[in-house]
Structures are given as structure tokens and as C-alpha cells.
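Practice problem: predict the structure.
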Amino acid sequence: MPTFDFDAIVIGGGSAGLTAAGLAANLGAKTLLVEKEQLGGDCTWTGCVPSKILLKAGKVAHQIRSAGKYGLIDGSPQIDYSKLMNHLKQRQEEIYEEADRPAIYENMGIEVEHGEARFLDEHRIEIALASGEHRELSARYFFICTGARPALPPIGGIGEVDYLTSESLFEAYKLPDELHIIGAGNIGTEMAQAMNRLGAKVTVLDMADRIMTRDDAELSGMLRNILAEEGINYKLGASVERIQKDDGRMLISIETGGRHETITGNQLLVATGRRANVEDLELEAAGIDYSSNGITVNDRCRTSRKHIYACGDVTGRYQFTHMSDHMAKVAVTNALVKLPVKIDADHVPWVTFTDPELGHVGATGKHLEEAGTNFETYRFPYSKLDRALTDSETEGLIKVYARKWDGKIFGASVLGARAGELISEYAVAMKNGISLRNIADTIHPYPAYNLGVRRAADQWYIKKQSEWQVKLLKKIFGYRGEVPDFSDPDRIV
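Answer:
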């Protein structure tokens, strides 16, 4: 067997890279982790962590304004945006110190190198160090985890104006007066609510006719209505034709249904997707196939080279921190343990952390209809969930798509408080073959939000009832009550 400098070299120190390096070292592999900036990647510095801090601050400000909803007195929050950003940076540093700093991984036996890596051939890389020196190293296995960056849409003039992305947004210490957001996906929608609640006047533009197009249309529509009531202005079905500056302001020319107009603002956030970081890796030198979407991998995260794997956003397949972590586990297990584990593409939870949260797992009703699958939709509104009532968080709906005769779950969508936690219960159920009947028969704590999961499952029992069954019971046992009205398809019991 050839002698290599390392058993495993991991390129990229974000969520996927940190997981891959930690697992490889734990399995006894001599491991090198290469990162050109700070460990932690998008999640810590430009994604999950800072966005959720802004969302939390916005929620607190909103609760102060609407304190009467909780039996208190409405107030006016005093927002110092610069102070908020300092708080954000402090929290990022705390998370970095606790989970991401190099010493943590070095204590695991991982060598951490700061620099930019490129392939020389399929077993060798060169690292350009910050010092200006270069280091050439070889490895038996490689794990490419270089992530992605914001993608810019082909809009005329966009390169001539100052715009924000999900990376630069968290470096701005001044709250914009008027913020226009291009993109009504999860990033655009989360930041629209956060910035609106913090005091900016927000307009969201998107070519689609609705927000959150990958989510259930009914629930995303409900969320849009909630956000619009909070003051967010939507221009959907709108094509942005050109952007230009005029006397310190931004002019955005859009076309909607054949009608042209120009809207103005003083700041722009571009949230139109992400692009895989592959350009500087010299993938051709290693014979690794890739496209404009990212590095091509199979369901075991293996590239066109059997000893080289890619995980996370760089593959273009999923853009969630939890999927980066999952893919890293799949890759390392296949490479180092030789177990044929595959990506679990059927049970991927999607959550947008607005208030209320919106999430789904598995198929949506639309997908099932298109596939010709026979299914039933089981609904349970938050307005009938006691914990939501006590918390005054009654805006929301649980929808479960399942097979009628045995309650096998095909998918679930949830809009409401704690939707991220509720959707996880459905993910566990689907992965392990747990039916609606099993959930309905399982004791859930009262009063908890996830009691809504059980209450939705109860509807499977309710829909299996029929008028003749109740009449038969009345006749056999002499019961004297009324027969329920089975004609209402949305009857909730």
C-alpha cells in the first residue's frame, strides 16, 4: 500500500468539515483539517447563528409592541442596532470558543492548517499558507467540504450598486430605513421579518407568485398573510429588470404582469440562492467531476474518484447545516468503515425559523397528487391546541399526509410555534415506520406543543369512523346520544 502523509484530509472547516474531521479522527485515522478562514463556516459566521440572533431580537421587539396580546401593556421597544450587532458578534465568539476553535480539534489528534488548498493530482494537494509559504501533502482519502456562497442573479446594474448578501448583512452596523429583498425563499423570508420587526421598512421581490415555493402552498400562504399584516410589502410575480443608484438612493425597475414600475429604497439584500465553492480547488487535476451546481456525488457522497468524497453545500444537493452534518457522517462511514450507508433523502426536515415557524418533511400533498399516490390529509389547527391558546400563539396548522387504511405517513407540514420541534417527531416516525395509529396511541405530555402531533394523529381514528358504525354501537349497547355529523370533511375531535 502506498505511503501517504495522512489517512484523511478534510478541506473546509464548516459544519460538514468539522463533523468529517472529528469522525475520522475518532475512527483512528490520521487527519488533517484545512480551512482558509475561521473554523465554523457559514453556520457560525454568516448563516444559522447570526440570522437566528436577529430573529430573536426582532421577536422580542415585536412582543413588546404587542404585549397586550399576553395581558400586559403594549410598549415601544428602544432599538440600538449597533448594540444588537455587538451582541451578535459576542454570541458568535462564544459559540466559536465553545465548539469551533482549532484547539478543540487539535485535542482530538487532528492537525489544523489555515490556508487555501488545491489539488495537484488525485492524492496530493498544495496548501497556500497565510505566511506565503506552500505545503504539499498527500492523503489516502479526501473529504471536500468547502461550502457555498451567495449567488447573484443576472440583473442589469447590480454590480454597480452597494448590496447586501447573507454574508455581508451581519457586518452592517446600521439598520436600513428602507430594505428591498430580492428572493422570497427561507433566507429572504427570515430576514424580511427580522428587519421589519427591528424597524426597517421592508419590501420583498420574487419572480414566483408565492413565497417559500418548496413548502406547502396553503401554509406558505398563511405565513405570507401574517408577515404582510406585520407590515412587510410583497411584490410577487415580479421580474427585476435593472438596478441603479440615483442621488444616494437605489432605483429598482421591475415588471409585473406586463406592467413596469420603479421602486426606491436605500438598501438591497440579495437572497437568491447559493453557489458552490469549487473554483479554486483545481478539481480537474484530481479528475473530479463537477458542474455549475457543485461537485457531483452519488448517494454515498462519493465523487467520480472512489477515494474522494464531498459533503454539504459544495455538492449543491442540500443547503442545510443538518444535512451537511448528515452527509459528512455518510461519507466517513463509507470511506473509513466501508459500510454502504446512503444519504437519507426521504426524511429531510426543512424549517424556516420565522415567527411562526414553517417546516415540512417528506412529500407534500402536491407531490403525492402528481405521483398518483392515494392518501388522506389529516389537519389539526393550533387554535385547538391548549398550549398555543395559553401562549396566545394560535396562528398555525398541522397537516399530515398518510395512507388511509393503515396510517402510514408520507409527509407532514407544520406552520406554527415550535414547528421545528414538531416536524422532527414526524421525521423520526417516518424513518422508523411509525404510523398515525402508533402516534395516536402514544402518551404525549400536556400541555405541550407536540401534543398537536398526537391530536393530528387522532384524526386518523376519527376519519375511520362512519355513521353506520356509530348507529350499530347505539343499537347493540342502547346508547342514547346523537350520531355525529360525518358530512363535514374537516371535523376536528
